[in-house]
Design brief:
The chain has a domain of 170 residues. Helix content is 6%, strand content 28%. Strands 1, 3, 4, 6, 8, 10 and 15 form a seven-stranded parallel sheet that branches. Strands 2-5-7-9-11-16-12 form a seven-stranded mixed sheet, with no helix packed on it.
Length: 301
């Protein structure tokens, strides 16, 4: 159950104020538990918005999987659009185009914890429940254009893509891109140029203007973008949590391999490829990071 109070910006509120009953939750908002029958320990979800005074608890052995449906992160036919490296012929993509898997704004006393895990499945093929939603294929063709999609139409084959691909090919039988395919394409274009594109990939967690945010004993796996993006946080504690993801491609030419272990996970202004806990504009105060590790796993071939 959420708090009885309104969702407002409580920046600067005193500890005495935050101890008031209206800022406390009487129960978990969501507690995901292991099945008593021995199966069914995975849950699939679209974007979740946490209210104040709420803890999302994921039990040991339970995994919360992000949906692969691109329209879940981009529900408005008029945009902004997710799962691309561009949104028009002249404008690149942005992770801000996508709703985060877990987010919250102007909150107090929220937490994500438990010995379970959250998996964004960025390694998996992107799908859509709307056949008209444009998706890029691994042959760089696209299934539709955003211009046609916004009007409920299907663009003709051969029409130039506006999602970073080449041309529309509705008959293509190759698979769709994964989120990591888009990230690779956005950061290292196939002809070797860098910085010429940017992927619209959803982030795992985004929190803005929160007083007392806690991540405890939770494992964050395979994010499509940053694992955690905190901005304007007063009191951020990360304790015994880990971020893991597989390596899908070899290190691109001209770039140094990234270290396998990161101990200083929260750094102001960091935008490195594998540093997945990012601080936003405005900064954070009283950030606590204890026993936090990021593990970089090499997938077996």
């Amino acid at each position: 159950m959420a708090t009885n109070g309104p969702t407002v910006n409580v920046a600067g509120a005193s500890g005495e104020e935050l101890a008031q009953p209206q800022y406390r939750a009487s129960k978990f908002a969501v507690r995901l538990v292991v099945s008593s029958t021995g199966s069914g320990n995975g849950f699939i979800s679209g974007p979740l918005i946490l209210p104040s005074g709420v803890t999302l608890w994921i039990d040991k052995g339970v995994t919360l999987f992000a949906t692969r449906d691109a329209t879940a992160y981009s529900p408005n036919p008029a945009g902004p659009y997710c799962a691309n490296t561009a949104v028009s012929a002249t404008k690149g993509g942005s992770s801000g185009n996508c709703q985060a898997l877990i987010s919250g704004n102007n909150l107090v006393n929220v937490a994500v914890m438990g010995d379970g895990s959250i998996d964004s499945r960025a390694y998996a093929e992107i799908v859509t429940t709307n056949k008209l939603y444009p998706l890029m294929k691994v042959d760089l063709t696209c299934s539709n254009t955003y211009i046609a999609y916004a009007t409920g139409m299907q663009a003709l084959d051969g029409t130039p893509c506006d999602d970073g691909g080449t041309v529309v090919n509705s008959k293509s039988s190759v698979r769709n891109m994964t989120w990591w395919d888009l990230a690779y394409l956005g950061n290292l274009v196939e002809n070797g140029r860098t910085g010429a594109a940017s992927q619209s990939n959803f982030r795992m967690m985004v929190f803005n203007y929160v007083k007392n945010l806690t991540l405890y004993r939770i494992t964050l796996n395979n994010s499509a973008n940053f694992h955690v993006v905190p901005a304007g946080i007063d009191g951020f504690t990360v304790w015994r949590s880990s971020c893991k993801h597989r390596r899908r491609r070899p290190t691109p030419p001209g770039r140094q391999p990234q270290p396998a272990l990161y101990r200083r996970a929260v750094r102001r202004g960091q935008r490195q490829e594998h540093r997945r806990v990012r601080s936003g504009v405005g900064g954070e105060s009283d950030r606590g990071v204890a026993d936090h590790r990021q593990h970089h796993h090499q997938a077996r071939r």
